[in-house]
Design goal:
The structure holds 2 protein chains of 2 kinds. By secondary structure, chain A is of the alpha+beta class. Chain A is built from 9 helices and 7 strands, in the order αββαβββββααααααα. Classes of the chains: A alpha+beta, B mainly alpha.
């Protein structure tokens, strides 16, 4: 261990390289934002989270002035929780998987402003949870007696449905979407794709129409403008636009069925 | 619930009937290029000879146009383009669809004022429309504006057809959406060329009609 640390120090000393960060900051939810620059010693393999940790250890900006450490959120550090989503060099992504070696300098870091900013890089993504509740992104199995095992799912269906289940509600697709903004109430691509996931499930399918009705409501699927930024930004490679087009078909069928069956 | 139906109706009307009328308009105009004044006049005469032409115009052109145009302006207003950060081709088409929509809206309002509205007022007759067009396209300023108008309308139609296929769940997967992109963009090029050639054809002296009293708003521009 001691040897590993000394090797690391040597590398820093040998290279003397610095990494420059330009961070968009905001002191409180209703405050205005400003940028602050930081220069940190380069360490091999560092990512944006470890850089933020370095600032936390030594909160001094590039002007040499003491400053409040930058606030951010993170949990898993392996790109599966979605908590550390932020805009890095203009693109929304997870800070933990943003390796400094692969980023152009200076590295700009900003909060995803599609969401309310709580402080610095911390944002409030609760609208996404609200959207999941709105579209009923769950499978109701609670009852007063044992319902027994559900129907089986075909393996080929399970394979593509599994891809949809990788969504970590990180908010990157909402940030990238030009139709998710303060002029619309569009819930965004992520919760739509969850409707497709739960409607594909053999038990979830029993409530498929409720979910379709939900996304035919305010801020639902109709607000998609086909820019397709979502599918290109999704860190998990979820086929969001395929989900949306498929749900377009399903909601259209539902629309005609509702009209003609009354 | 309202938003869903409003948006679906907007998408449907854009192709049926508006897209179909747009293609019909292209073919009639192109007859001016292909067969000259005689051929174009025959086309105009055929259209005006259709039964219940005023009903057709009202319910299959005017009202759908008004709905599609005004609701479309609202859609354009709701957009927050971000092409600087997301430079992919689909995102550019997203923004262009809204920009060309607004241009087309203004252009069609002007064009309808120049032509159909003047017929309704009795300032010109259907037979004189070739002459009206000749006056418009022989002025360099209005010729350029009309060219911008028809190219914008062609893009809006062709790309709108692409998103129509997505909106109605016809092209679902990435491959079908890519293939339909190629087809629709080819359609954009063909339709634009045909409309521009028609505009060029109207510059021909045979369309000159000294009896046309109406001079369009080109005089305000010139």
């Amino acid at each position: 261990m001691a040897e590993a640390v000394s090797t690391e120090n040597q590398t820093t000393q040998q290279t003397g390289r610095k990494v420059k960060f330009v961070i968009t900051r905001q002191d409180k939810p209703e405050g205005s934002s400003y940028t602050e620059e930081f220069e940190l010693p380069y360490r091999p393999g560092m990512n944006v989270i470890s850089a933020l940790m370095e600032i936390q250890r030594n909160p001094v900006n590039s002007g040499g002035k003491d400053t409040a450490p930058v606030c951010w959120e993170s949990n898993c550090l392996e790109e599966v929780c979605g908590a550390c989503s932020m805009v890095i060099n203009g693109k929304p992504r997870q800070a933990c998987s943003s390796l400094v070696d692969k980023l152009e300098q200076p590295i700009t870091v900003a909060p995803m402003k599609t969401f309310p900013v709580v402080r610095d890089l911390v944002i409030d993504r609760s609208r996404m949870f609200g959207a999941l509740k709105k579209v009923k992104a769950w499978i109701p199995i609670d009852g007063t007696y044992d319902l027994g095992p559900g129907p089986r799912m075909a393996e080929n269906k399970r394979q593509w449905a599994y891809e949809l289940s990788k969504c970590m509600t990180c908010g990157v697709c909402l940030e990238a979407c030009p139709n998710v903004n303060d002029k619309t109430d569009f819930i965004g691509p992520a919760p739509l794709s969850q409707v497709r996931l739960f409607n594909a499930h053999p038990t979830g399918e029993m409530n498929a129409e409720e979910r379709l009705d939900a996304i035919m409501g305010e801020g639902g699927i109709e607000a998609c403008g086909n820019s397709q930024n979502c599918v290109r930004s999704c860190p998990k490679g979820i086929p969001l636009t395929t989900s949306i087009a498929d749900l377009n078909k399903e909601t259209n069928k539902r629309m005609f069925k509702r009209w003609l069956s009354v | 619930m309202k938003g869903f139906y409003a948006r679906r109706l907007h998408s449907l009307l854009g192709v049926i009937p508006l897209g179909l009328f747009f293609l019909e308009h292209m073919i009639t105009n192109f007859s001016a290029y292909e067969g000259g004044k005689e051929s174009f006049d025959a086309g105009v005469e055929f259209l005006n000879g259709l039964p219940l032409v005023l009903v057709l115009e009202t319910f299959f052109i005017f009202l759908p146009l008004l709905y599609h145009g005004i609701y479309g302006l609202y859609i354009a207003y709701q957009a927050k383009p971000n092409n600087a950060h997301y430079g992919n081709e689909r995102n550019w088409r997203y923004t262009l669809q809204r920009v060309t929509g607004v241009i087309t809206f203004i252009y069609i309002a002007w064009h309808v004022y120049d032509t159909r509205f003047q017929v309704a007022l009795g300032n010109v007759t259907h037979e004189q429309l070739g002459g009206v067009m000749h006056n418009i396209v022989t002025n360099p300023a209005t010729f350029v504006l009309y060219t911008i108008g028809v190219v914008a309308a062609s893009f809006h139609f062709a790309n709108g057809l692409w998103s129509f296929l997505v909106t109605w769940g016809i092209t679902v997967g990435p491959r079908s959406q890519r293939v339909s992109s190629y087809i629709c963009m080819a359609l954009f090029v063909i339709v634009s060329i045909m409309f521009v050639l028609s505009l060029v054809a109207f510059r021909n002296m045979e369309f000159q009609d000294p009896t046309v009293a109406f001079q369009s708003i080109r005089h305000f521009i010139a």
